[in-house]
Amino acid sequence: MLKDITSFVTGSVRLALRGNRWYFAWIGFLGLLVLWGVTAWMQQVSEGLIATNMRDQVSWAFYIGNFTFLVGVAAAAVMLVIPAYIYNWKPIKEIAIFGELLAVSAIIMSMLFVLVDVGRPDRVWHLMPIIGSLNLPTSLLGWDVLVLNLYLILNLVIVLHLLFTGYHERPYNHRFVVPLLLLSIPAAVGIHTVTAFVYAGTAARPFWNSAILAPRFLASAFCSGPAILLILFQILRRTTSIEIKDEAISKIAELMAYAMFLNLFLFGAEIFREYYSNTHHLIHTQYLYSGVDGHTALVPFAWASLICSVIAFLLFLFPATRRNLVTLNLGCLLIYAGVYIEKGLALVIPGMTPDTLGEFYEYVPTLSEVRVGAGIFAIGFLVFTVLCKIAIPILQEPEDRVAGAA
Amino acid sequence: MSDPDREYDSAEENSEHRVDRRSLLIGGGLTAMAAVAATVAGSSSGFVERLLRDRFEELSPERKAEILDELEREYSRRFGRDVEVADTAPMEGVVFGYGLDIARCVGCRRCVYACVNENNQSRDPQIQWIRVLRMEKEHGIELAGSNAYYEPAEVPEPDAFYVPVACQQCRNPACVKVCPVKATWQEPDGIVVIDYDWCIGCRCCMSACPYGARHFNWADPVISSEELNPKTHYLGNRPRPRGVVEKCTFCIHRVREGRYPACVEICPVGARKFGNLLDETSEMRYLMREKRVFVLKEELNTQPRFYYFFAT
Predict the structure, then answer these.
(1) Last residue of a domain, which of B86, B112, B130?
(2) What are the pLDDT digits (tens) for B187-228?
(3) Cβ of B179 and A135 within 8 Å?
(4) What domain range includes position B164?
(5) What structural domains and CATH numbers belong to chain A?
(6) B235 in a structural domain
(7) Best residue of A126, A131, A282, A347 to probe chain B, by most B CBs closer than 10 Å
(8) B91 falls within a domain
(9) Of A86, A189, B47, B230, which one is least surrounded by beta carbons within 10 A?
């Protein structure tokens, strides 16, 4: 057993260290981005969060927006697991593991975004159960820490088991993996619901304090997560011998169309309530879509997000455009951009603008924040790339693997 | 204004605290292992207590005294003068309440600066626990149209009135509920306090507070030695480190010794009232009986102990 583990680890390291020119160019590019981000973060650590443009009025912003978006990406792995393992739908089952690899990478990124956002990174251990003082059951962020860690561990265990057995060309243990996979479905819904509740439970911020925030989070996540995977699948089937059928890709695109419909419908319901009731609380939505008293920083982003989402919905709705790879990929990019803005800047910032006493502080991120964010995304892509690099040969047929190694 | 050589250098303080805490953490880890062993052997007494000993709320009186001593030595060394760090306990049978007469307030902001001086708020970047909102008489009480940055030649202005806002010391504090690490809590006398050595700076409490009462140390707070108020309380006005949240504590170091908060003392028009809500003869109970009081954002059910009224 120990020998099996050592050979798996050394084999994996060997797989990660081997590759063509493009692979190393990509790794090098990500490495530079990481360096760019880490140097900005070190500056932030030495100065304090004054290096950001967050202030008392807008005390959460770019970092927490990215955190929220990435929790959604992680949750979306379930989008592939449900059809793959519950309905035993073969074309997706073969590729569902990539959803889990993405979930692992996205969770790591989202945790890093929390880490760079806290004022005292040296004290994050206070969040650990037992040795810290996690404030359960009342703190939603406390619950979020718990479920995110559980989700990460769950996905790591599943992925490692599948890769380990695959590496040794043994069948995976059905009775071990399937219950864990089934558990990962409510866990995925759980992480995004709890993250939504962090906002929705905040009575002081009417923009967030909405019962349909959690359903909206889930609907938009089920668009953005698979959008990344659809593009990855096309790269994989071109560059490796892994077979990914058109059928699987257009099925996922169809599911995304339903999710985007739900997302737009819930958005419409929220907009109706805000504008028709026309209370003081409307000011946050107005700040987002039309600006208030010359404060218009978010307006172009808000409309760009909405337009991207609507076009993507139409592209995925019609079978002709979702089967055409050009329009499909365009749709993926539009969805990704649309949801990134919607769950990032357009959720967190208008919730805090104007602040609880009516003051407008117009937030735009500093270069330092953008650099730290880029660095974290680069770390996430690095993790994802290396995990895929290890997984691909293992998932390939044995004869391909021999051919690939030669 | 401030002498850079003697400025409050909290980075130094923090690194020392961190070392202290890390060693405790390692100690905690060993304790955990010992406790696990003990649990296996059938006894687990004191396990949680030992692990959580670093949270001020749960420290033994001896350990508290040690920590206060350490802090006093440290602050005294840094500011070059004697600094006292007390942890005066709440008084039996006392729950504090605050009253603010909007009809009298002239918007002079003396309370803002008295508070800054009394409670050692950072001068650079500026932190102010009290925010005075200017409102139009034409519109009445309306936070949405208020302005905290008014600079007229003189106050009060004929068409405006002023509503100072600070921590409302809610009976049902949203900030305490959301804190993920129990770094903020409500004391028996109703004061909501923060342990600056336990706060992780996640700012959940700032999102949750409907009154903008909580402030974050975005950079190292700067106070000169001459400006420092050396009489401090662990849960109140002691010098804060960077990266943590702070807010009004009703001047916990004064009121627990039977004195008025600094803002009440300084107010030139007597707009600010303070007293024991449990004492029927107190000024607070008198004005609640004789005047008509209200609270801000009552629909949020935060149930502030900070009452506004119009007495004249």
Answers:
(1) B86
(2) 999 999 999 999 999 999 999 999 999 999 999 999 999 999
(3) yes
(4) 96-309
(5) 2-399 (1.20.1630.10)
(6) yes
(7) A126
(8) no
(9) A86
| A133 contacts on B by Cβ (under 8 Å) | 52, 55, 181-183, 198
Domain boundary among the residues B56, B86, B116 is at B86
* Interface check A45 vs B, CB under 8 A: no
What domain count does chain B have? Answer: 2
Q: Are residues B166 and B284 in the same domain?
A: yes
Q: How far is CA B117 from CA A29, A90, A399, B120, B126, in A?
A: 51, 70, 77, 6, 12
As a whole number of angstroms, the distance between CA A201 and CA B208 comes to: 9
Residues B49, B159, single domain; the answer is no
At A117, the amino acid letter reads D
Domain shared by B161 and B184, yes or no: yes
- B293: in domain: yes
Which of the 8 DSSP states describes residue B6?
A: G
| Pair B299, B220 in one domain | yes
Distance from CA of A356 to the nearest CA of B (A): 6
Chain A interface, best mutation among B202, B203, B205, B248, by max A CB count within 10 A? B202
The CA distance from A305 to the nearest CA of chain B, in Å, is 25
If contacts are CB pairs under 8 Å, which of residues 134-153 in chain A contact chain B?
134-135, 138-142, 145
Q: How far apart are CA B161 and CA B181, in angstroms?
A: 40
The verdict on a CB contact (< 8 Å) between A133 and B52 is yes
Residue B223 lies in a domain: yes
The burial of A267, by beta-carbon neighbours within 10 Å (0-12 exposed, 13-18 middle, 19 or more buried), is given as: middle
Q: Are B247 and B278 members of one domain? A: yes
The pTM of the full predicted model, rounded to 2 decimals, is 0.90
Give the other-Cβ count within 10 Å of A234's Cβ. Answer: 16
Q: CATH number of the domain at B108, please.
A: 3.30.70.20
pLDDT digits (tens, 9 = 90+) for B84-118: 999 999 999 999 999 999 999 999 999 999 999 99
Distance (Å) from the alpha carbon of B280 to chain A's nearest alpha carbon: 33
> CA nearest A126: which of B27, B49, B198?
B198
Whether B211 sits inside 8 A of A357 (CB atoms) is yes
B74 and B117 in a single domain? The answer is no
Does B104 lie in the same domain as B67? Answer: no
Check B242 against A119: CB less than 8 A apart: yes
Nearest to A50 among B142, B218, B245 (CB): B218
DSSP A336-347: HHHHHHHHTHHH
Residues of A in contact with B14 (CB under 8 A): 122
Answer yes or no: do A205 and B207 touch at CB < 8 A. Answer: yes
Q: Three-state SS across B64-110?
A: HHHHHHHHHHHHHHHHCCCCEEECCCCCCCCCEEEEEECCCCCCCCH
Instruction: Calculate the alpha carbon distances from A278 to A36, A274, A285, A289, B77 in Å.
Output: 45, 6, 10, 15, 57
The tokens for B178 are 């959301």
> What is the predicted ipTM?
0.92
pLDDT score at A398? 52
How many residue pairs bridge chain A and chain B with CB atoms within 8 Å of each other? 150
Answer whether B216 sits within 8 Å of A354, measured CB to CB: no
Q: Which candidate, B311, B137, B204, B98, places its Cα nearest to that of A199?
A: B204
- Cβ distance A356 to B210 less than 8 Å, yes or no, reads yes
- Indicate if B109 and B155 belong to the same structural domain: yes
**Which among B181, B244, B300 has CB closest to A135?**
B181
User: Residue A8 in contact with residue A168, Cβ under 8 Å?
Assistant: yes
Residues 6+ apart with CB under 8 A from A149: none
* Shortest distance, CA B209 to any CA of chain A (angstroms): 6
The whole-angstrom separation of Cα B35 and Cα B30 is 8
